[in-house]
Amino acid sequence: MMLKLGSHVSMQGDAMLIGSVEEALSYDATAFMIYTGAPQNTRRRALEQLRIEAAQQRMAEQGLPLGNIVVHAPYIINLANPDPEKRRFAIEFLVSEIERTAAIGAEHIVLHPGAHVGQGADVGIAYIAESLDDVFAKTQGVQVRVALETMAGKGTEIGRNFEELRAIMDCVKAPERLSVCFDTCHTHDAGYDIKDDFDGVMQQFDDVIGVERIGVFHINDSKNPQGASKDRHENLGLGHIGFPALSHIVHHPDFAHIPKILETPYVTEDDASKARLYPPYKYEIAMLKANTFDPSFIARIRIDQRK
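^ that's the sequence the OP posted. Answer follows.
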């Protein structure tokens, strides 16, 4: 079975989605994740400008299924917001994002569940479920699942443990429209021992939610020790999770059919400057495919980019 492995890629300029495909191919990726526009705002191009047909044709030429595309919803969507007008905005924008995801051909749109901003997790969960019911009612017949992301536990965000995600699923009227995006950095930062006991964590996940719900993995190392609740991604092998644990997840036979997406930091030109940033994904993907960590890969990226 094809290893479904890739990274976040951009979708901008006139190339749009075909540019995303070409960027992914330049990393030797077999999957990729996009935002349909900037994650911090609502500005979006018309569907006919996204060059979807050309991108789908290019993927077909490479033997890549459309299901290997993952869409990520923008950060500004907060379905748990206590302000009804802001919540209504979030609902309508998520509806439009789901429609765009369906037009692209992706199967999952990753969503940060939301932040309760002080009203308590139970109230936030109720608002999220109510909002999702509205979203699903407005997108009936659309074959896209909302992948609730496991969160690190910073601030008042919901999804810091498996039980909170399960509570959302138990409250919605169409739970079959939901899946889970399992983020390694977030889950580690939330306190789960994926470094030394990934299979045990998966048993916990299965007991609470069911492993069949996992639709996407985000593969990220963490700058923080386990349980820090901070959510700071690190390049593979340079953080507190470590390369062996992350490669184990990527190559785990039970999840071979699930896209694994890197969201690791860009590499700075040197340790003292952040004037230029280089994508690490071609190198990290190569290490994961070979199941071998190269401790010099950051230096190699810098050397190669200067040529």
